[in-house]
Amino acid sequence: MSRVIVITGASGGIGAALAVQLGRQGHRLVLAARREKELNEVAARAAGRGEGPVVFGDPRARGEAVVVPCDLTRRADVERLRDRALDAFGSVDVWVNNAGRGITRPVLDLADEDFDAMMAVNVKSALYGMQAIAPHFMARGTGHIINISSFLSRVPFVSSRSAYNAAKAALNALTSNLRTDLARTHPGLHVSLVMPGVVTSDFQRNALGGTPAIRFGPSVPTQTPDEAAAAIVRLIEQPVAEIYTNPAQAPTVLKYFEDVGAFEAQWKRTP
């Protein structure tokens, strides 16, 4: 079944990989990010056109994509994204809040602007997306909101990502609260949380403050953007409340919450 799927943060990393996989399955896409050139390249790959410039025909054609350059930290831009999707396709089936950015600052080194930037990119952009599309889904009685969080929102393996981790933890809470609210009145709507682990993408290089050598340990295996995206594709086909893109992460989180002190003490001693 062909769906209309909005993906934010689609110009690179997991968002781009997800767009390509969904586009080649024949879904109709609306791709958003700040970088228009990169968005067009992703849209071309999603439609099987290679890396060249994109000339769009009828956006209602199967596998077609609409590119919407925008600043997702601005509510008006997110509402414009929703309106552009509805104008192009008439409805939306899935909205993926994937925009995000990291930072390398320990807690005691965080400035106001550091924390505010992490909340704006990682939380407010998703909040704006949820608020923009939920009324459309509620009116239709169906729809799927997917928020991309992080494994680091649950386990502090990388404390230098402090504000990013905190922002993603806030996103987790918003996601679960929205899911609970909608379940009471609109059982046909789905709200899912996705927690990737360490993904080998440009995200690390684009983090504010750069990315130093980070010790992740043997319990945090890496994934490619394609592997993480494939888990999200499966989630779209079979919605559930939350997933870890790497199943090996779930036992680690459970172990952490069962005994935080013991886990952190052992992690401190891990070479």
Strand-helix topology:
Elements: E1 4-8, H1 13-23, E2 28-33, H2 36-46, E3 65-69, H3 75-89, E4 94-97, H4 112-140, E5 143-148, H5 162-185, E6 189-195, E7 198-199, H6 203-206, E8 222-223, H7 225-237, E9 242-244, H8 249-258, H9 260-269
Parallel strand pairs: 1-2, 1-4, 2-3, 4-5, 5-6, 6-9, 7-8
Please describe what this structure looks like:
The protein is of the alpha/beta class and 271 residues long. It has a single domain (4-269), classed as Rossmann fold. The protein is built from nine helices and nine strands. It has helices at 13-23, 36-46, 75-89, 112-140, 162-185, 203-206, 225-237, 249-258, 260-269, and strands spanning 4-8, 28-33, 65-69, 94-97, 143-148, 189-195, 198-199, 222-223, 242-244. The strands form two sheets. The protein has a seven-stranded parallel sheet with strand order 3-2-1-4-5-6-9, with helices on both faces. The protein has a two-stranded parallel sheet with strand order 7-8.
